[in-house]
Design a protein that fits this description.
Blueprint lengths: L6 E4 L10 H16 L4 H20 L4 E8 L5 E8 L8 H4 L10 H8 L2 E6 L5 E8 L2
Helix pairs in contact: 1-2, 2-4
Length: 138
């Protein structure tokens, strides 16, 4: 395995006939991992699931996707995903929502937390929030 240079990727604007943002983010993260040749198959599966959850949640519950960035650390051991959305509401696990079957969501956040090496959630000064998830690749 060779050490890859710092490899950031930012989601381009999506419109017209382009792919869904979660699909495009997942495809691009997979290409990033392919180029780096540093991820185990399990790490690739986990990364695909986590990126889909993060971008999907930003669209479904976060008021819209404001920014997305993915990068592999210079040593090739970690994938860092950053998702900004326009909602100040913090992610909530289904178990914290209580008995409210009419209220959607809450199932993906525990998955993200369990697969990540670290998770940070911060409100942004201009409004909205940023979620940063780091996943181990090896």
């Amino acid at each position: 395995m060779t050490t890859q240079p710092y490899r950031p990727w930012t989601l381009p604007p999506v419109g017209g006939d382009d792919a869904h943002p979660a699909t495009e983010a997942r495809r691009t993260v997979m290409r990033l991992l392919d180029d780096a040749q540093c991820a185990t198959e399990r790490a690739r599966i986990d990364a695909g699931l986590v990126v889909t959850e993060l971008v999907g949640n930003a669209l479904r519950h976060g008021g819209g996707l404001a920014a997305f960035r993915a990068e592999i650390d210079p040593g090739g051991a970690l994938l860092r995903l950053r998702v900004d959305d326009t909602s100040d509401a913090l992610p909530v696990a289904r178990r914290a929502l209580g008995p409210a079957p009419e209220r959607p969501g809450g199932f993906g956040w525990p998955i993200v937390e369990s697969l990540a090496a670290s998770v940070e959630v911060a409100r942004l000064p201009r409004g909205g929030k940023r979620i940063v998830v780091v996943l181990a690749l090896v």
